[in-house]
Amino acid sequence: MKLTHGICAAAMSAALLPAAPAAAQVAGSQTPSTLQDELAAMRARMDAMAQRIETLESELQAAQNAATPPSPASAQVAVAPAAATQDPIAEATDVKFGGAPEISQGGWSFKPRGRLQYDAGFVDAPSSTGADDGFGSEARRIRLGASGDMPGGFGYKFEADFAGNDIAVTDALIAYDAGAATITVGQFNTFQSLEELTSSLHTSFIERAAFTDAFGFERRVGVAAEFGSDTMLVQTGVFTDNMEDLPSGNWGADGRVVFNPRLAGSVLHLGASVHYNDLEAGSSVRYRQRPLVHFTSERFVNTGNLGASSEFGFGAEGAVISGPFHAVAEGYWQNVNLPGAANDPGFFGGYAEIGYFLTAGDTRGYKGGKFDRTKPVRPVGDGGIGSIQANFRYDHLDLNDAGVFGGKQDGYFVSLVWKPTNYTMLLANYGKLSYTDAAVAAAGGDTDYDVDVFGVRAQIDF
Q: What are the Cα distances from residue 87, in Å, to 83, 84, 105?
């Protein structure tokens, strides 16, 4: 506005300067009528000049508005039409990240899955057994897959394992959420024990309890239903064999019940399971187990092949999680029907374990009737060292009964688990295994001896 006032002053000066002498002359020599005429002419010139000044002010304001950026409100108004033309489906897309990106849109979701586990260590057996011991290593699991949801209450999961130079399908399932129940069809874990159903990502030792492998727990193709509430879980299903063994005339049925209330901040887990497996004519079973680690092929307990028509199993499980402390124990009884045998043998396996976190605030994860992911309170990269957990376990397997001498294995294990972050883990464990009636004899036919084992694992998953 200073510029406008300057223009006004200049215009007024230009108008008045020539008029001042004329007024003086008129005052001294001209008649009144002539003076009035001069004054009228002066007023006319001043009115014209004022109109011109208003015109210049309007043009100047227009120029200033053109040079000034639009205000935020104006900008919002300007882009509003463009926003209205965006794709509504693209606006509904949601991407979350929890180890891997999960993309959701219109009732669909997709999340890639994977895990890498590398093991190494030593097995020390009496040299006279001729066992292939010493250093060993392997890529224990290399899995890739995906999971997600589909419109209508459906879900899916697929994973394949590439370890051992073979490709083996682990999970391949379709699930349907029926409200009160979840119906699952495909290949997945049967409902056999807490230890077996807990993912290998979240176990406290490098391998699961001996009985889970000895009694042939594995993923099978079938259909199952699960009913759950805040404190109760019921699982039941009918299965045939693993996908690699199909077609097959074998079939089985599994059932599991879990009671898991939360009491004063602690989790209590009580469960039981029953299993029946009908074998087609001419089938055989074999129960055997490695000494704690998987990278050795030696089995110091082994029943050999037994011609069987069916198997029946019963399992009991209990656990408690209270802050940094956890305790768990399981027992499993496996009975096998041997046609023509005077007595059908029954075998037993079980374990008892306690564990404690050495890092403040950390606790063992639990979800859906099984142990779940441990999430360090202070992970590496966020001002902490992650979680550190110490575990102790007694593991027992008895494969002697009714004239079958597969041997007994008693394991005394200790492990140290370090989780720098939610999705990384380093594990070290030592085990002393005492054998009675071992399937592999030492010098002089001795079948009672000890084997020492040390193993480490490096793991990541997403």
A: 9, 9, 13
Burial of residue 243 (number of CB atoms within 10 Å: 0-12, 13-18, 19+): middle
The candidate with the shortest Cα–Cα distance to 315, out of 348, 360, 293, is 348
pTM over 0.85: no
Per-residue pLDDT reduced to its tens digit, 9-29: 443 444 433 443 433 343 444
Q: Are strands 262-263 and 266-278 parallel, antiparallel or unpaired?
A: antiparallel
> Residue 288: beta bridge partners?
302
Q: Is 57 helix (H, G, I), strand (E, B) or coil?
A: helix
Residues contacting 29, CB < 8 A, separation 6+? none
pLDDT tens string 223-264: 999 999 999 999 999 999 999 999 999 999 999 999 999 999
3-class DSSP assignment, residue 362: coil
Is 50 exceeded by the pLDDT of residue 348? yes
Is 154 in contact with 174 (CB distance < 8 Å)?
yes
Count Cβ atoms within 10 A of the Cβ of residue 341 and give its class: 0-12 exposed, 13-18 middle, 19 or more buried.
middle
What would you measure as the largest C-alpha separation in the chain, in angstroms?
A: 158
